[in-house]
């Protein structure tokens, strides 16, 4: 009965994230490593977000040179927050990538039931790491 109750909770309880931000950091030294010929892959080629849950991309530039993301120049030490309002696939120019491109896939909010359970299971390891001090 305990396992069945846990599965029912996971499928039907509302998803209420602490933050809707999905943080990615551009580490210090990224530009220097790239200029030295290192193929630096600090950000994934594709970032997946979910409407209503983690639908805001937050980029922090910890490098000592400006980085370009789409039409935005992110200066050293600055952050750029991009909230998404529509589920879709977006492509951006990104100087933090060796390829110069990055895609953001924004999925629709999961429906109550099976979709919610699947979403929780996909994000469980990441959310578990967030709660660990």
Could you explain the architecture of this structure?
By secondary structure, the chain is α/β, with parallel strands linked by helices. It has one domain (2-131): Cupredoxins -  blue copper proteins (Immunoglobulin-like). 26% of the residues lie in helices and 31% in strands. The longest helix is centred in the C-terminal third of the chain and has 18 residues, at 114-131. The two termini are 31 Å apart.
How many domains make up the coordinates? 1
Task: Output the helix-strand order.
Answer: HEHEEEEEEEH
Calculate the terminal CA-CA distance, rounded to whole Å.
Answer: 31 Å
In total, the number of strands is: 8
The percent range for strand residues is 25-35%
Broad CATH class: Mainly Beta
The CATH homologous superfamily is termed Cupredoxins -  blue copper proteins
The main β sheet shows up as: 3 strands, mixed
CATH arch. level architecture: Sandwich
Q: If you average the pLDDT, what whole number results?
A: 79
Helix content: 25-40%
Instruction: Provide the low-confidence segments as ranges.
Output: 128-133
Strand order across the largest sheet: 1-3-6
Which structural class should the secondary elements be placed in?
A: alpha/beta
Round the Cα radius of gyration to an integer and report it. 17 Å
CATH topology: Immunoglobulin-like
The number of distinct helices, counting runs of at least 4 residues, comes to 3
